[in-house]
Design goal:
The protein is mostly helical. 55% of the residues lie in helices and 2% in strands.
Length: 791
């Protein structure tokens, strides 16, 4: 890997270059036939700064960065602890660096799962009282001291405070860092303000504004200060009140001495002062915390990417030693072959054993062209072809894994576990499995399978320990010493009973549950094939790899949060708040970290930009509209609009549905439905006409409400029915009201009305018939006849 260069470009030598030459011990000479590599980084990801050409045999001086023409820059090695200059990289390890050419377009990632991959969960750690037997044994044995290699700290780029403040200022969040002297002056001014208020009993708005810093004079801060002063017993007025007003409001000066006011001001100063430094703006808080993490250089990105890859490789290496997980992988391969599972949800790609670690030059790749994504037809065909190629290659790899797995099975049946032949076959299986790069989601499922087996073992071991130690009374030390080697030995408990120890009597009554748990552990070991102790070791190595990978991903994500901000600010005012855009962009950033391949030669910012933009635009399409339209329909609408514009430019008129249906190769009726969906909603407050008094909502009929004429007729009918029923006897009127549900929520049966009057159903029927005959009399029926035609 090329060494880290100076953060400032190199200019031509000047007269004082001799001092630099002394510090470097001797000038660095570079073969003209070789090319050196350098990594430049800046506050904005993806920005490249080329170094100015110099003569390799002359000493140089480092000055401020200036843009320079395209040429291979000179590399100055970083001094070591012994102050010895590093040797120049050999020609075989050097790589050409593109200077003017834009970053290449990243290869398409064949990912059909829109949800993306879930991040790995933190390994579950046994809580208190849930010891693992192997862990307890380890406490009583001297653990071997392992050689720990020192981790190389990722290279990070220093970002100037000016650039951070410029970013904050761009969003209206500029905060000037105060010096200690400024802070002291501000505290003295606040102290004087509080002292004045405690002495007089009141303050004015003008006095408060004079004592506040210029940058915090806004409505919210002023209101917070006023509330704080009121809590301290200091009234605040718009202007200086007269003596009568002070007497009426009981805010006359309290006559405090200067010493008392001094003490009160000192006690309240911390409370008031905290109001100025406190912020509740989530964007300001997020940016302040984000600014504490430095950007990564190119070498730093590669270092973290290697740590992520190393953690995943360690996880897969551990998983490959568990036959149960290999069987699950082969089952997924069969589902892929049958078409039940999409290949892109299981496999990301493949690795080559002799693949070089050095990244290749970016100039070897095509430039990133956003317009290519608009060509849905060509992109879809290319994606389908890539998926088919990926599926074919994955099935071939799975077939090889199945062959190696069969060899492991035969060796296990013939010689047993742990023999040299078995370990050799297992190693071949692991090497073949490591050539397949699984998705983060599929790796997580395999880890959960293995983790579940280990949790099952530990659950049964804890139950055995509870019975033997807590219930039977065997000492902890004796249990740790004798039981782990006899975990699956059913005769061990019988020997303990026959030994005549103090716990033998109680243990004799617990022989069945102990042997039952031992039998279950034996069945579990038969299913997982490997010994239970080795299964725990596999789980431990898997968790270590998962932790390393997760920590490295966290570093990569936190170091690139500024990239999300710079992209999200271009999508403001499109229906989503700025914080929502940042959140969606961060989700895309996490997906980019999962799929980043440093060997392809891109800077991470080049690769992550597409994922962040895709996540933000998809969220806008899915959430920004008041009336939600599915994302795939929005893509169809955009394609239809693009074809309409092209047709208008070529022929001078808008295409109809039949023309669009022919161009888009979909039915005409579907085109008409899309046109209806594509209409933008319009506000009901849209003014109609020249005057602003009438709006669109005033001319829209409300079908849910009753028309005025109908409401008047119903009110008239209600009054007439009430008058007619009042002309009957109270008993008859109540029977009719209950039978027909008049002025009630529902009608009633004859039996229900009979229970109300404590008479039979027949009697209620007779009363109802008599009342209806009365209503048919012309004196009453004529009043209702006018409503018959309108009902």
């Amino acid at each position: 890997m090329p060494s880290k260069t100076s953060k400032k470009p190199i200019a031509k030598p000047v007269k004082k270059a001799a001092a630099v030459t002394k510090k470097l011990a001797k000038p660095l000479t570079v073969d003209k036939t070789k090319k050196a590599t350098t990594s430049k980084a800046s506050a904005k990801p993806g920005l490249k700064v080329a170094a100015k050409p110099v003569k390799p045999t002359k000493p140089v001086k480092v000055i401020s960065p200036v843009p320079t023409p395209k040429k291979a820059p000179l590399v100055i090695p970083k001094k070591t602890a012994e102050s010895k200059p590093l040797a120049a990289k050999p020609a075989a390890a050097t790589v050409d660096v593109a200077v003017k050419k834009k970053p290449g377009r990243p290869a398409k990632v064949l990912e059909a799962d829109a949800g993306g991959a879930k991040r790995g969960r933190k390994p579950k750690i046994a809580g208190e009282g849930e010891e693992d037997l192997s862990d307890v044994v380890a406490e009583f044995e001297e653990a071997p001291v392992a050689d720990v290699t020192e981790k190389v700290k990722p290279l990070r780029m220093k970002i100037s405070k000016a650039k951070e403040r410029a970013l904050m200022k761009e969003f209206g969040l500029d905060e000037t860092v105060l010096s200690e002297e400024d802070i002291l002056k501000r505290r003295m001014r606040l102290k004087a303000l509080i002292k004045l208020g405690k002495t007089r009993g009141y303050l004015t708005h003008g006095e408060i504004s004079d004592h506040l810093p210029d940058k915090v004079i806004d409505a919210e801060t002023l209101e917070a200060v006023i509330l704080t002063l009121n809590d301290l017993g200091v009234a605040v007025y718009e202007q200086t009140p007269d003596a009568e007003s002070l007497l009426i409001t009981s805010n006359a000066p309290a006559g405090s001495t200067e010493e008392e006011a001094e003490e009160a001001a000192e006690a309240a100063l911390s409370t008031v002062d905290s109001e100025f430094g406190r912020t509740t703006d989530p964007v300001r808080m997020y940016m302040r915390e984000m600014g504490t993490v430095e950007l990564l250089t190119r070498e730093g990105e590669i270092e973290i990417a290697k740590r992520i890859e190393g953690g995943l490789m360690r996880m897969m290496e551990a998983i490959s030693e568990s036959p149960a997980t290999i069987a699950e992988i082969l089952r997924l391969g069969e589902e892929i072959r049958e078409g039940k599972v999409v290949i892109s949800t299981v496999v990301d790609g493949f690795t080559v054993a002799d693949e070089a670690d050095d990244y290749v030059a970016e100039e070897d790749f095509d430039e990133f062209d956003e317009e290519d994504d608009d060509d849905g037809k060509g992109g879809s065909k290319a994606l389908t072809k890539k998926l088919e190629e990926l599926k074919t290659e994955a099935l071939n790899r799975f077939d090889k894994i199945a062959i190696h797995f069969e060899k492991v099975h035969k060796t296990y049946d013939k010689e047993g576990y742990g023999t040299p032949t078995y370990m050799k076959a297992q190693k071949s299986l692991s090497e073949e499995l490591m050539t397949v790069r699984f998705t983060a989601k599929s790796i997580e499922k395999l880890c959960d399978l293995l983790r579940g087996q280990v949790l099952d073992v530990r659950k049964k071991e804890r139950e055995l320990r509870r019975i033997i130690v807590e219930k039977c009374g065997m000492p902890q030390e004796t249990f740790i010493k004798d039981f782990p080697p006899n975990l699956l030995n059913l005769k061990w408990v019988e020997k303990q009973v026959a030994s005549g120890k103090s716990w033998s009597v109680v243990m004799a009554r617990n022989i069945p549950p102990i042997q039952e748990l031992q039998t279950k552990l034996g069945e579990l070991q038969a299913r997982v094939v490997v010994p239970l102790l080795h299964l725990k070791d596999i789980n431990k190595r898997m968790n270590e790899g998962e932790t390393n990978s997760r920590d490295a991903k966290k570093e990569m994500i936190e170091a690139n949060l500024r990239l999300v901000i710079s992209i999200a600010k271009k999508y403001t005012n499109r229906g989503l708040q700025f914080l929502d855009l940042i959140q969606e962009g961060n989700i895309g950033l996490m997906k980019a970290v999962d799929k980043f391949e440093y060997r392809r030669g891109y800077k991470f910012s080049t690769y992550a930009t597409w994922w962040i933009r895709q996540a933000i635009t998809r969220s806008i399409a899915d959430q920004a509209r008041t009336i939600r339209i599915p994302v795939h329909m929005i893509e169809t609408i955009n394609k239809m609009n693009r074809l309409s514009r092209q047709h208008l430019q070529e022929f001078g008129f808008e295409p109809d549905a039949s023309v669009l249906a022919e161009k888009m190769e979909i039915p005409e009726d579907k085109i008409r439905k899309i046109m209806k969906i594509a209409k933008e909603p319009i506000s009901m407050e849209t003014p109609i006409g020249d005057d602003d008094d009438s709006h669109l909502g005033d001319f829209i009929e409300d079908g849910a409400n009753t028309a005025p004429l109908e409401a008047a007729m119903q009110a008239g009918l209600r009054d007439v029915v009430k008058d007619i029923l009042d002309s009957l006897t109270p008993r008859e009127a109540k029977v009719l009201r209950m039978r027909f549900g008049i002025e009630m929520s529902t009608d009633h049966t004859l039996e229900e009305v009979g229970k109300q009057f404590d008479v039979t159903r027949e009697r209620i029927r007779q009363i109802e018939a008599k009342a209806l005959r009365k209503l048919k009399h012309p004196s009453r029926s004529d009043k209702l006849r006018s409503f018959i035609d309108t009902l």
